[in-house]
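call fold(seq) -> tokens
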Amino acid sequence: MTAQNDRYIRTLATRARAASHAIAALDADRRAALLQAMAQAVDAGRADILAANADDLQRARAAGTTGAMLDRLALDDARLDGIVQAIAEVAALPDPVGQVTQRQTHPNGMTVEKVRIPLGLIAMIYEARPNVTADAAALCLRAGNAVLLRGGSEARGSNIAIARCLHAALARFDLPAEAVALVEDTAREHVLELLQLTDLVDLAIPRGGERLIRFVAENARVPVIKHYKGVCHLYVDAAADPVLATRLAMDGKLSRPGVCNALETLLVHADIAQSWLPGALQALAARGAEIRGCARTQALFPEAKAATEEDYDAEYLAPILTVRVVDTLDDAIAHIQRHTSDHTEVICTRDEAAATRFIGAIRSSAVMVNASSRFNDGGQLGLGAEIGISTTRLHAYGPMGLESLTIERWVVRGQGHVRHAESAEAA
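ret:
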């Protein structure tokens, strides 16, 4: 790495760190107004954003990009409307900064509080998703932080176009552009340098494929929120409603196969398999799903390919579904515990005791009872636009909204209270 490259990242991060103080100093109403201005700026700049995205898509196709990666890269008017709406929704959310989460008054009259404050400077490292540029900026700023964005080279033009809109809104409020700092030079060595800046970066959040996230986690000295992949399961219990089970399987697998909360594995209790599974798999296959199953699945649905143990660990990001017939609820739980990525697990059942047992045994970031895996999403769970889904059991687990971009600290209010009266009097 050259000295010039080293200075580029450190200089940008230093300016972003300074900008974080300016953002933290804004009151809640001012931060909300800033986000509203950002939503308006993105809306006004849609022609430039779409033109830049068209160029990105053309280069991606020429490079052989297909499938889920291309889908995540693509923007159109509807998706831009979604970005604008997401920024506005975050602006309207309750402000977490300054929230008192705990308060107690000691017998001596001293008051002890836990209060939410911003994290500081958050680094986002992501690929293919230009919407992350806007979503991350909105969430970080609303929670009083600055954000340092390093998007993938495949979305470089789109990210620059969106960032310019956000910078225009910051300028209207006389705030530094580095509050939303974009690393425009997407050279790989810049990521390595960024991940070493323990004196400037408070948290790194990678979003993208498993390879990217493992690269960040293995090379970072700064704290990292990890989410390697989404191997999500649907267990259809013996007491499941067959119609509902089919709806959950169809929505979970086929509504958008290339996202992390899509289903990858279907587990079916043997007592319902013969009556339900052939029809359900036929419906999935008719809509384009490739079925890979265990021997018992193949006996009921001969069109299924044989599934390997590696298949049950795979995140396909494609219309491929692995299936296994199990004899008991405990067998389903054991399979999930063996193959889970700690993302999302679903049970379909009319047996409340089975649902309670499933919830208690599963440690994933979200557990759904008779609801689609696709609901493990910040917007669907009431967080506004999420900055990511954490499967790391640190200060945040599951979809990360505004509160996850703050930390709690202690504030003690006294009237000259001292812990050791004798030493204080001697002084």
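The chain has a mean pLDDT of 94.
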